[in-house]
Structure formats: C-alpha cells, structure tokens
Specification:
The complex is a heterodimer of chains A (259) and B (176). Chain A has helices spanning 3-28, 36-52, 60-91, 96-123, 130-159, 166-192, 197-218, 235-258, and one strand spanning 230-231. Chain A is mainly α and 259 residues long. Chain B contains seven helices and one strand; from the N terminus they run αααααααβ. Chain B has helices at residues 2-27, 37-42, 49-53, 58-64, 71-108, 115-141, 152-164; one strand at 172-173. Chains A and B meet through helix 4, helix 5, helix 6, strand 1 and helix 8 of A and helix 1, helix 5, helix 6 and strand 1 of B.
C-alpha cells in the first residue's frame, strides 16, 4: 500500500496541470463565451485542487475543504449539462417546448433510475465516517443522474434529428463517460468498503485526467461550425419560387399570344 | 468480489458502447434524410387500397360455392394473401417513416415553437406502432386463430400524416 499515496500525488499534480491547460485553452479560443458554466466548473475545480494541494489528505481541514466544495462542483456539473442542451435547443425554436418536455422527462427518469441504483450502496452497511459515506453516495447518485440525462437527451436529439456542432457532440460524449466511469468507481468504493479508498481515489483522478486530455485535444474553434444539411425555407426562397412560377405563366401567355 | 468487479467493468463497457452508438446516431443526424418534394407530391395512399381487400371474407365464401372446392385451397390462398399483406405492410411502414421523417424535419427547422405539432407527431407514432403491432400479431396467430384486423385505420393514419406535410414547408438542402 505504500506506493499508492505517491502515485495519487502524481496523478493529482497532473490533473491540476490538465485543469490549468483546459481553462487556458477555453480562454484562448474564446470558447468560454459559449460554454460558460463548463469554464467556471473547470476553474472551480482547479482552485479547489490548488487549495487542497498543500494539505495533508488525512487532516480534518482537507476533509472540510473537500466536502465544502462538493455541492458547488456538483451544482456546476449540473449547470454545464443544462447549458449544453439549452444551447442546442435555442438554435431550433421549432422544438423548444418539445425539448423542454424531453428535459423534464429525462430528469425524472434519470433521477428515478439513479435513486433506485443507490439501494445497493446503502445496503453495503455503515462506515466509520457516515458523513463521508453519505457524501460519496450522494455524489454517485448525481453523477449517474447526469450521465443518464445526457444520454436520454442525446437520444431525443438523434430521434428528431437535430444536427449538432462537433464540439457539443464531443463534449456530451466525454462528460457522459466521465460521469459514468466516476459513478461506477464510487459504486465499487461504496459496496466493497474502505479498503478500496486509495485505489478508487487514483482511478477517479485518472478518469478525470483522461477526460481533461480529451477536452483539451478535441474542443476547438472549428468544432463550433455547425454541419447543417438543411436550412429553413426563407422568404427569399418563396420569392424565388413565386418569380419562377410567374416566369412560367408569362412564357405560356407569350406563347399563346404569338399563336 | 472479483466477479462483482467484472460485472461492474462489463456494465461500464456496455454503457460506453451504447454511448458510442448514440453519438454516432447524433453525428449522422439529418444527413440520411431526403425530403424530396417531388416524392411527396406524387405520393398517394391509393396504392394501399388493394391491401384492404386482402382480408375480405367474401372471396372465400365465393370459393366455397365453387365445384371441386377443398379447404386446403382456401388455406393456401389465405397463406399467400398473408404473405402479400406482409409485403404491403413493410411498404406502408417505409412510407410512414419517410413522411414522418419529413414532418420531423419541418418541426426541427420551423422558425417558431410548434408544441402542438410535436405532440401530434408523437401521438401519431404511438398510434401507428400500436396498430402495426396489433396487425402483425394477428397475422402471426392467423394459422391457428383466424382474426380479421381492420386495415383501414392504418391507411387513414398514413393519409392523416401526409396531409400535415406541405412540400412547400420542407427545409431546403444547404449548399455544401
């Protein structure tokens, strides 16, 4: 068990570097104007990790900082997801209300499934630090709900079908994998007990690191270009169509007149 | 414990594969659609009128009255008609999907919010799937339990969807 904390420290440092690069990239490419909550979420996690860096994980102050920031981070995660779909739905006013129904239904379904899945976590029994256990279970519930919400909304958009920006697709995919993987890792920790704490902690930071690498590599300015195969019929097109019809009538009249 | 861990990993792998499938569908969204206005102008549900006659019992009554009739002949005729009906149903489903895809495109590219159209489309899909399932189940059990499902509402559902689509409202393919 001795090398685990060193490894944990290394991946922790790397994740801080990852957050820093991602925040800088979002600022540099001006993508933070589009994905505001995502930017603030990454910034908040960066600040939190920098504050935690000099602290000993075995101390009470570390636990308080960690627990105190969890609600904010989770709230920002939820806002990131809602922001993502609001951005999509705003571009398609025709399905604005339908999209809101889908969002409402997805939230209800995601909460229901995630809530039911938590029964296994609670059944695992009490631990030495019940507050930490409830925090972990709550976090797992939120992560699974968000993953399910993202997937259900993607299905809704694919069903219509709504063309999406490359960044939105990649962003949604990375976030879903992040939520799912973290949720399953927390599930393992909750069910198999404290012996797994160090291993799961490293796995979660590694997942975060991997997702950060994908965000850094895949989110770019070009990804904001929408690949739209169609566009609404505009007044100009109606005008063109009417002119073509008038032209056809005129041609017929001219031909009739010349006979 | 290791079995439980393997189960967790399997759940994760399956979820990621499902996610990749969803992402692929989203990435291809709209690219396979072909809202050809000429097809919509030419389309008519009249082509499905002969289908409604396929389950007509009158033909069998007539057949029974003929000299040399044997129940085997009627059974064979029923089986052949069921095969033809299944082909009609496949065609009808394809046409419904095409009209439905066009209606969804109109909705997606509409410049104002259309909750009533969204609701109506969802209702039509549910009704159509329910009717289709009922008819297919009737056909599946037909050799042992002869049922005569009414095909008219299916054709009416197709016609009602067609009436909602004005070719002039179809979105225009963007120039690449």
């Amino acid at each position: 068990m001795a090398p685990v904390p060193i490894l944990e420290r290394v991946v922790f440092f790397l994740s801080i570097a990852g957050y820093t690069i991602l925040v800088l990239k979002l600022a540099w490419t001006k993508l933070f104007h589009v994905y505001r909550f995502f930017f603030f979420s990454m910034l908040a996690q960066l600040v939190r990790d920098v504050v935690l860096l000099p602290l000993n994980p075995q101390t009470e102050i570390y636990a308080w900082v960690w627990m105190g920031t969890i609600p904010l981070i989770l709230a920002l995660d939820a806002l990131v997801v809602f922001e993502l779909y609001s951005l999509v739905l705003r571009e398609y006013p025709g399905i604005w209300t339908a999209g809101r129904w889908a969002m409402g239904g997805s939230i209800a379904l995601a909460l229901l499934i995630a809530g039911l899945s938590l029964i296994a976590d609670f059944a695992a029994g009490a631990e030495q630090y019940p507050v930490l256990m409830y925090f972990r279970i709550g976090r797992r519930g939120v992560f699974l709900s968000l993953a399910l919400f993202v997937i259900i909304m993607m299905l809704f958009l694919a069903w219509y079908p709504v063309p999406l920006r490359r960044n939105v697709i990649r962003h949604a995919f990375i976030y879903s994998v992040y939520f799912l993987a973290t949720s399953l890792a927390l599930f393992v920790r909750n069910v198999f007990g404290p012996d797994w704490t160090d291993t799961i902690s490293i796995i979660i930071i590694a997942i975060t690191l991997l997702c950060l690498a994908f965000w850094i590599a895949l989110l770019d300015r070009q990804g904001e270009m929408k690949i739209d195969v169609f566009h609404p019929r505009t007044d100009k097109e109606d005008e063109r169509r009417l002119l073509a019809q008038l032209e056809a009538i005129n041609t017929t009249l001219r031909r009739t007149g010349s006979k | 414990m290791s079995l439980a861990l393997v189960a967790v990993l399997v759940v994760f792998a399956v979820s990621v594969l499902a996610l990749i499938w969803v992402v692929r569908r989203v990435s291809l969204a709209g690219r396979k659609q072909d809202p050809n206005p000429d097809w919509f102008k030419a389309f008519s549900v009249r082509r499905y009128r002969p289908m409604e006659r396929l389950l007509n019992e009158g033909d069998y009554v007539f057949l029974e009255s003929q000299p040399g009739f044997h129940p085997k002949i009627a059974r064979r005729l029923r089986a052949e008609r069921r095969t033809i009906l299944r082909k009609y149903l496949r065609m009808l489903r394809r046409d419904f999907d095409r009209l439905y895809a066009a209606a969804k495109l109109i909705l997606v590219y509409s410049e104002s919010d259309r909750p009533e159209l969204a609701r109506e489309l969802l209702k039509q899909r549910i009704v159509f799937v329910a009717m289709m399932t009922r008819i297919e189940l009737s056909l599946a059990v037909a050799p042992v339990l002869p049922l005569r499902p009414d095909l008219r509402p299916l054709v009416d559902a197709l016609e009602s969807l067609r009436l909602q689509i004005q070719p002039a409202n179809l979105p225009v393919p963007s120039v690449a």
